[in-house]
Amino acid sequence: MIWSFARGSRSRNWAITCCMPWADEAGPTAPVPSFLAAACGGAGGVEAGLCALALTHGTVPPTLNLDNPDPDCPLDFVAHEARERALRHTMSNSFGFGGTNATLVLSRWEG
């Protein structure tokens, strides 16, 4: 893992667990940068699409190449293979260069 990605992942995990102390009980976490590579500005849109697909199909996408998760992070990461899960909500966090940050929450249509 490249150092900047490791530092960024650690920072994202810290932000999620600080802002949502219940995050370890909320369900699986699937950071998707592992297969988006350097999509930069397009990553948020792709991730929003993946969230919509996860809601539609009830499948949480995997985090590729997650062989050694940080033992200090309490989140339930989905490593290597997708996981079936009935989802009602998904959340996409996008952290960009220069402090551009956004969070998008999608909910399953129950109508």
Overall description:
The chain is an alpha+beta fold. It has a single domain, classed as Peroxisomal Thiolase, Chain A, domain 1, CATH 3.40.47.10. It is built from four helices and six strands; from the N terminus they run ααβααβββββ. The chain has helices at 3-19, 23-26, 33-36, 43-57; strands at 28-29, 59-60, 76-77, 83-84, 89-95, 101-107. β5 (89-95) and β6 (101-107) form a beta hairpin. The longest helix is centred in the first third of the chain and has 17 residues, at 3-19. It is globular. Residues 1-5 have low confidence and may be disordered.
Summarize the structure.
With 111 residues, the protein is an alpha+beta fold.
Task: Describe the protein's topology.
Layout (H helix, E strand, L loop, with lengths): L2 H17 L3 H4 L1 E2 L3 H4 L6 H15 L1 E2 L15 E2 L5 E2 L4 E7 L5 E7 L4
Parallel strand pairs: 1-3
Antiparallel strand pairs: 2-4, 5-6
Secondary-structure element order, as H and E? HHEHHEEEEE
The largest β sheet comes out as: 2 strands, parallel
Rg over alpha carbons: 14 Å
What is the topology, as strand order, of the major beta sheet? 1-3
Q: What is the molecular shape?
A: globular
- Count of folded domains: 1
CATH architectural label? 3-Layer(aba) Sandwich
Strand content: 15-25%
Number of strands: 6
- Helical percent range? 25-40%
The CATH homologous superfamily name equals Thiolase/Chalcone synthase
Instruction: Please give the CATH class.
Output: Alpha Beta
Query: Can you give the mean pLDDT?
Result: 76
List unreliable stretches of 5+ residues.
1-5
What oligomeric state is this? Answer: single chain
Specify the structural class. alpha+beta
Count, helices: 4
How is the CATH topology named? Peroxisomal Thiolase, Chain A, domain 1
